[in-house]
Amino acid sequence: MPDLPAHVRVAIVGAGFAGLATAIRLTQEGEDDFVVLERAHEVGGVWRENRYPGAACDVESRLYELDAAPNPDWSRRFAGGEEIGAYLRGLVGDFELGPHLALGTELEAARWDEDAARWRLDTSRGALTADVLVAAPGALAEPRLPDLPGLDTFEGPAFHTAQWDESVDLDGQRVAVIGTGASAIQVVPGIQPRVGRLTLYQRTPAWVIPRRDKALSPRVRRLLRRVPLVRKALRGSLYVHHEALGFVFRHVSLARVAGHVLGLHLRRQVKDPALRETLRPDDTLGCRRVLLSDDYYPALTQPNVEVVAGGAVEVRPGGVVGADGVERPADVVVFATGFYATEFPFAEHLVGADGRTLGEVWGASPKAHLGTTVAGFPNLFVLQGPNTGLGHSSVLLMAEAQIEHLVNALAFLDRPDVAAVEPRPEAQAAFVADVDAQMERTVWLSGCESWYLDETGRNAALWPGGVGAFRRRVGPFDESEYRLHPAPAPVHA
């Protein structure tokens, strides 16, 4: 493994989609003075970590790819996790990123040096400095385990879906799955035929709508490979379709009407009235993350499956206690309990110009200018930061807009008299206020609890508008919104 460079113009932290997309965009701009720091020994981010049975994307493959790297050979309408991981690994060779990768290198701390106008980084493999720091740790990078009494007393294997233990044989086992979010609706059908008994602990029923996944025939894939215009047209039609879905989420009355229509999916797939009532969501469509599945409901109707309403309240050595007070035996516990989506654990490692960490500055409610830069943290660019998530389309489209902002900022930093840029506090406050005002009218603030909301009740995860509006607002770099740090005076011997 080569040594770390002593200094780079750009240090990128994270080799998932956003980090690799940044590296690709820099190479396209002719910038080769950068390094990608990745704590794991392989690229892939969330698609490296999430290897549970049934793992797949819930956005169509054609929209869940980088604009710089279209893939005509996706095997399915919705690609599986293994295929997405292979796509990401392929980017390294296709764009010759290998020399820029520092795998097995964890960022331990980063501190802005005002005098030198650069970031000082401490990693598990040594120190380096960088003019610009790009934080691309991923929005769903740190698994969240529930705070259940007795969790440490369980005598069998217990693991999160993002930390799947492939050494555990589930065949014929009694498996407790805790959580009913996006991972659960994939892993439950993935393991249900194998296990002896599956108990699903559901705290809150989710909206599940048809996925309509299907394999793409060799003939279709040949067409997409040979006629790029068809591939672009398909991608464009998917973009428009998802933007229309986003319009529904921004109007509560429309979302309620859509919920009545989409509720047919539950009625068609679950015939047992009692189970159907247990699975029926009571909040507005979109208030929580909407889930896509064709096989989740059918899996729950199988004779070896039980759904426990109210979720789990305690773990004991031989089983899990549900909200009904009944202990049900379990040999294995699987946590499908999501991630730290609004806490951003990486923020505790970044120290800004005033000596405070980003975590201290953000407190209970993370906020950023354009979801990308933060007042008090010069030359820091956060990808998939606060208010850049989506409830209706591909987050890669959002990350690409943020990367364009970075590229445009780097062009501005080419000026010899400017060493660093940071958003003006008033510009950041105005952006956040506008986001919050738009959010008031959406389904995400219509009364339910969700992982979109931070500790203060603010939706710190999602962008309240369409993708197009975000790209138009975020892509350009407006110097009037930024404070410019002058270049340090040269040191004479």
UniProtKB/TrEMBL annotation:
Source superkingdom: Bacteria
An MF annotation (GO) of this entry: oxidoreductase activity
Key words of the record: Oxidoreductase
Transcription regulation in keyword set: no
Gene3D superfamilies: FAD/NAD(P)-binding domain (3.50.50.60)
Protein's UniProt keywords contain Oxidoreductase: yes
EC number: 1.14.13.-
Pfam families in the cross-refs: Pyr_redox_3
First-level EC class: oxidoreductase
Official protein name in the record: NAD(P)/FAD-dependent oxidoreductase
